[in-house]
Amino acid sequence: MIQSSVYDYVKVLDKAADAAWLRNEAIANNIANVDTPDYKRVDVNFEDVLNRELRDARYISVDEKVNRLMTSRLEVGTYVDHGDFSYRMDGNNVDIDTESKYMAENQLKYNALIQSVNQEFSRLQMVLK
Question: Shortest CA distance to 120 belongs to which of 22, 45, 18, 8?
């Protein structure tokens, strides 16, 4: 089998899109539970995981960093955000306005990631022609 770095960016973009999808589900769940007493909002933070992995390889090009990146280490899950914090009397820490902003921001990010994946495949298709 031929080893190639052609799909390195696609793999990272795919992980980022998966994380954005997971974050969208978390935000939707937060919005659905806006009136649930003692509910604590959940979130996903892919960016910190990616930054941590890319930071390990300093003083090399971004292409080389992405090439060396182990995508298996980019797995993320949900976490409880400010589990002990609540500004409401019922113990819930979900603010509908903030969640709506996060939802819109995340949808833009997800669409941009999908567009980037499509562009990478278009480039590959052009090279193969």
Answer: 8
Kindly report the pTM of this predicted structure. Answer: 0.83
15 secondary structure, DSSP code: H
Cα 7 from Cα 43, distance rounded (Å): 28
CB count within 10 Å of CB 128 equals: 6
Q: How many residues does the chain have?
A: 129
Token digits of residue 29: 């769940």
Place of tokens 């998966």: 18
Percentage of the chain modeled with pLDDT above 90: 43
Which token pair is 18?
């998966």
Which H or E run includes 30?
helix 8-32
AA letter at 117: V
Distance CA 20, CA 115 (A): 13
Angle (CA) 109 114 118, round 5°: 145
| pLDDT of 71 strictly over 60 | yes
Q: Which amino acid is at 42?
A: V
Distances (CA, A) of 104 to 10, 19, 97, 107: 24, 15, 11, 5
